[in-house]
Write a structure and sequence with these properties.
Rossmann fold; 2 domains; 5-stranded parallel β-sheet
Length: 346
């Protein structure tokens, strides 16, 4: 028995000796500069990959706030090119809003969010030509001859904005470049299709709302397990080090075979119990923001870098961490029996 303990101690010592030396505050868990493929994100990933291969020129992805849509876009930006085996130009447009009434400002926003060096130089016609030339250059450089735009908070777009986008689409189409728009937004985005059809704006639907996907949060035990498994196995920092996020924060426990994914059932039960205790109605759904925040709190408050590190995590630690994410308060504010409130567009 003594020999076994000695070997375990040697193993733990070796594990700690090879642990990466990462400055405090710079690990991806702390900076939140990482993406993990939840079940729902993988579904969207498959759908968007299919849309690109079929050259579907536009689609909507909609869902309530905080479910992880922005997290999803970041994952797609990083992984679509690898999946398609082509250096696909992808732009994430985040600054468009309903108060843009002039095409010049619209063009400036697009160019700026795309990282163009001369977004604010020249007249409207010059900026328009600059945008088309920029997108043509990028589209012409890949064998798909496609440029992909994710437009965030797309429920804020007005009919006039879509008319400008159709003009850019048509100009690029004449150059044999396909502009694909993925409109990402809240649930109001789904209703815009009906509004446009009643307003005889079918050209918008036929160009940019051909397909749709309702984005949902974490709903099942399996969803939770997939999420946690990413921290155990699919995450790594620094790159090539072999140190997953779980291993870095709990090296001894990880060496002993402990994994976050083993808490999947307990976490599902904690959320279920909390919903019952606070009389939360509606579909069981954990927004990605609250799930990743609970995991972050567990890793930082109880892991190796904390002021009072623990060997491993307890169920009580999970309960405390989930409550600290303000999940209950957030769900209480969402009254499923009331008229859905539209968040103000920026």
């Amino acid at each position: 028995m003594a020999k076994v303990i000695e070997n375990q101690q040697d193993s733990d010592a070796l594990s700690l000796s090879t642990r990466p030396d990462i400055p405090l505050g710079s690990h991806p868990v702390e900076t939140e500069d990482y993406q993990i493929p939840t079940n729902e994100i993988l579904k969207v990933f498959a759908a968007v990959t299919r849309w690109i291969k079929l050259r579907v020129t536009g689609a909507t992805i909609y869902g309530r706030p905080r479910l992880g849509k922005t997290w999803m876009v970041k994952f797609l930006e990083k992984n679509l090119s690898k999946e398609l085996e082509v250096n696909l130009p992808i732009h994430h447009i985040v600054s468009l809003h309903s108060k843009i009434a002039k095409e010049e400002e619209f063009l400036e926003t697009l160019l700026s969010d795309m990282g163009h060096d001369f977004a604010f130089t020249g007249k409207t016609s010059v900026k328009r030509n600059r945008l088309i030339a920029f997108l043509y250059q990028q589209g012409n450089a890949n064998r798909y001859r496609i440029v992909l735009l994710f437009i965030d908070e797309a429920q804020c777009l007005e009919e006039l904005h879509y008319e400008w986008l159709i003009d850019y689409y048509n100009k690029l189409d004449k150059l044999n470049i396909t502009l694909i728009l993925i409109l990402v937004g809240q649930e109001q985005l789904n209703g815009q299709q009906l509004v446009f059809s009643h307003g005889h704006a079918d050209q918008i639907i036929q160009r940019f709302m051909i397909e749709e996907h309702k984005f949902v949060g974490i709903r099942t035990l399996e969803d939770i397990k997939v999420c946690l498994k990413c921290y155990d196995e699919l995450s790594e920092y620094p790159a090539g080090s072999g140190w997953s996020f779980t291993r870095y924060y709990f090296p001894e426990a990880f060496a002993a075979g402990e994994r976050l994914q083993n808490f999947s059932k307990e976490i599902f039960e904690i959320f279920t119990t909390l919903r019952q205790k606070y009389n939360l109605k509606g579909v069981f759904e954990i927004p990605m923001k609250h799930m990743t925040m609970a995991i972050k709190i567990v890793l930082l408050d109880y892991g190796k870098n904390s002021s009072k590190p623990q060997h491993w995590i307890s169920k009580k630690n999970w309960v405390d961490s989930i409550l600290k994410t303000n999940y209950i308060i957030s769900e209480q504010r969402k009254n499923p029996n009331s008229v859905k409130q539209k968040r103000e567009c920026p």
